[in-house]
Structures are given as C-alpha cells and as structure tokens.
Amino acid sequence: MNIPFLDLKRQYQPIKEEIDQAIHRVVDSQNFILGDEVRVFEEKLAQYCGVKHAIGVASGTDALLLSIKAHNISEDVITSPFTFFATAGSIYNAGANPQFADINPETFNIDPEDLVKKIRENDKIKAILPVHLYGQTAEMGPIHEIAEDHDLTVIEDAAQSIGAEYHGKKIGSINTTCFSFFPAKNLGCYGDGGIITTNEEEIAEKIRTLRVHGSKPKYYHHIIGHNSRLDALQAAILTVKLKYIDKWNSMRIKNAKLYNKKLKEIEGLKVPDIDPQNKHVFNQYTLRVTNDRRDDLKKFLTEKNISTAIYYPLPLHLQPCFSFLKYKLGDFINSEKACSEVLSIPIFPELEKEELKYIVDSILKFFDKSK
Ligand SMILES: *Cc1c(COP(=O)(O)O)cnc(C)c1O
C-alpha cells in the first residue's frame, strides 16, 4: 500500500461536474475580479461563520496582513512561536513587531498563563494573535479575559480551522479572524485565497479599501493599500466546496477518533486531546513521539510507504530572519520540545478503511505492539 499525505484528486472526483460548471460560468462571463462571484461567496461564508462581514483576499497570509493594518497596530503583537511562518511574517510586514508566548504542551496552542506574563512585562503589546493550530481552537475564554484586562485587540489566525468551535461558538464569529483557502486546508481552493471575517463595519470597510490599493473612491487614495483580492474563479469554486465542509470535517473527526482509540495506549506516543467542549476539525492529526524516537518512526513509516509531515521543525523565535528580536534557545521550551516530537500522519477525509488500518498497524508494529 502507498498512502499519500493528502490526495485532493479523491475530493475533486465526486464533485467534478459542479466544479467544472462553476469554472466555466466564470470563464464565460469573463469577469475575473471581484463582482458577483466574490460577493456571493463572501455572503455564504459570513453566514456559515455566523458573522456580519466576510472580505475575500488573495491568501491567508494577506488576510493576516490586512487585518493587522486595518486595526492600525504598529507596535507589538504577541503570538505563538509554534505556528506556520506567515503568522509572524505578516505581523512584521504589517509594520508591527512580533513577540511570542510559549504554548501549552497538551494543545500546542498559546498558553494563557505565559501570555499574561509576557504582556505584563511589555507595555508595547497592543494585540494578541492566537492561532488555532491543526484545527483545534485556542483557549479563547482566558484569552478574551486577558485582552479585556489589558485593553488589547484580538485577531485570530484560523487558517487551519474553518468550522471549528470553541464552547459552541464558531471560530470567526467574534473577533477579526483570518482564514486560508490554500489547497491543503480543510476548505481549499485551486490556488491561493483567503478571507477575513469581522462584526465591525468600520474594519470591514477598511479591509475592502486596503485590498484595492487603498482606493476609495476609485483612483483616490487616503491610505496606501495592496492588490489583494480573492479571484472570482476561486470564489466560484469555493461556493461549491463550502456546501461540503461540514461533511468533510466530520470525516476528518471520525478518522481522528479511530486513530485515538487504536493508538492511545502506546507508551512513548501521545495522541491529540479531543476536548468535548470544543470542535477540533483536524486539519492535521499530530502525534507526539517521546524518547527521541520521532525521526525513527517517520523513517519507519516512509519505508512502509506512508507519507508523514513535521509541522513545524523550527520554532519562529529561532528562525534566522527573526534574530533581530533577540530570542534564544531555551526561551520557549514547550515550543522547542514540540518541534522535536511532533509527527503528523494522513488524516484527509477520503482515506479508506484499509488505509487507516494499515497506518495503525504500521505504527503498532514500530512500537512492537502488533498482535
Ligand atoms: C496556511 C497558514 C497561513 C497562511 O495561509 P496562506 O493562504 O498559505 O497564505 C497562516 N497561518 C497558518 C497557521 C497557516 O496554517
């Protein structure tokens, strides 16, 4: 058996007709920039998230960049060092300064205790940027309390977490929230794309202006913006795919529950927490492999033709490009440890029973637990 990490062809096949029709509709219209396709998708996505506004942009990275700019944040923004590069890269590119607080080793998300500590030490911090990593929501209750106490803006990075819920509330329904439609996300388009959700009319309008060069009215610029729009073609594809997101997410959750059941007893392996109060949508199913055996397990699975991935091998505070921030090894030990222990295994919705079984059996074999 040969198991890919992700196989998007299996997702396309059953909806090919609908998708092809949507693409042809846009091509026939020859309207490629904004217009009805983007407006319709924005409305549907806003409705899905239970939020007033959704503004389509060119990528998840630009969603972060434009959100930070729209909130006028030019001092420090605190986030997790254990996330995809774009989270901190966008803070810098928006003209602010990234700062970090360590993660909770159980959830891989920002630790509210360390967050408070870091905020007390630094009065330049103006915003908190929690990341809902792997599809699991950050601890938004405590984060909102901290934000209120210190009068800070909250902007969420939900690139991996469309459809996730915290205490019964959909991510994207409260603060300004950034989503990505990169093909490997739970709701992926056929290229790059992203969207920002917000309940604040003023922020929504500022983002709509920022994505068209800061132009309002056309050819008059009070602010310097970007060229960052969600393509009409991508919007048409996403309008089709949005109908299936809940189904696909529940298939991911089902796969994750099976893995958890079969793998939870293994010593030297920790399966992800599934908090019954929240909805984890499993963009990644990430194991923690202790006793320095992660790389051996990865190699073993590669030999069994099972693709795996490491998200992420180097925390952001140790990336060479951020050396000017003066962080050093040992500053965020939970994040550093996670980088050496995490291993993500295939979790995409269309995985077949036999494939899941083969993956489970191979992992059991590595730990010498096979029957
Ligand atoms: C994918 C991702 C992004 C960036 O999204 P793009 O659409 O690829 O620009 C940002 N943050 C996180 C956590 C991501 O996983």
TrEMBL record:
Q: Which GO terms describe its molecular function?
A: pyridoxal phosphate binding; transaminase activity
Q: What is any Pfam family matched here?
A: DegT_DnrJ_EryC1
Q: Which GO terms describe its biological process?
A: polysaccharide biosynthetic process
Q: Which UniProt keywords apply?
A: Aminotransferase, Pyridoxal phosphate, Transferase
Which SUPFAM superfamilies does this one have?
PLP-dependent transferases
Q: Which residues form a coiled coil?
A: none
InterPro entries from the UniProt entry: DegT/StrS_aminotransferase, PyrdxlP-dep_Trfase, PyrdxlP-dep_Trfase_major, PyrdxlP-dep_Trfase_small
Q: Please give the family membership noted in the entry.
A: Belongs to the DegT/DnrJ/EryC1 family.
By what name is this protein known? Aminotransferase DegT/DnrJ/EryC1/StrS family
Which organism was this protein described from?
A: Methanobacterium formicicum
